[in-house]
Amino acid sequence: MLRAARECGSPKNHLPALQLAFDDWCWGAVENFQLEKALNEILKRERRYTEEMTGNYGEWRRQPKAYRNLYEFEDDPQKPDDELLTLRLEWWPEWGRNAHNLKRTPGNVKRFLNARPATIQ
User: Fold this and answer.
1) Is the Cβ–Cβ distance between 92 and 44 less than 8 Å?
2) pLDDT tens digits for 60-99?
3) pTM, full prediction
4) What end-to-end distance do the CA atoms of the chain give, in Å?
5) C-alpha angle 39/51/78, rounded to 5°?
6) What are phi and psi of 110, to 5 degrees?
């Protein structure tokens, strides 16, 4: 789009408006043709990936309950706070008003800020 805008002699600041118009067209097409369910099925089938989060038990214990539940964290009271634990979550982007999900790169590995690298088995 940027190259096309340059070739037409349009200033660079027209690109955001062009992007918004394109987004509106996409939303309209999905709504008008009732494509949301089919899009989500395709995304789930073809863009599924595993997200990994590594942190020590102390960090996992301090996370909000909803976050611990999302990663299915099961606390083992016998584990010391500094022992590392990697949890995996199966994920896929979804079409919806949170379209930023479609821009996520599959396979991102996230780590808590103060966690040391861990061997993932």
Assistant:
1) yes
2) 999 999 989 999 999 999 999 999 999 999 988 888 765 5
3) 0.55
4) 43
5) 140
6) -110, 150
Query: How is the beta sheet containing 84-91 ordered, strand by strand?
Result: 84-91, 49-56, 109-111
Q: Which residues pair with 85 in a beta bridge?
A: 55
Cβ within 8 Å of residue 97, ≥6 positions away? none
Q: In angstroms, rounded to a whole number, what is the distance separating the alpha carbons of residues 22 and 48?
A: 26
**Gap between the Cα atoms of 21 and 37, Å rounded:** 23
Residue 7: what residue type? E
Name every residue whose Cβ is closer than 8 Å to that of residue 86 and which is 6 or more positions away in sequence: 52, 53, 54, 118, 120
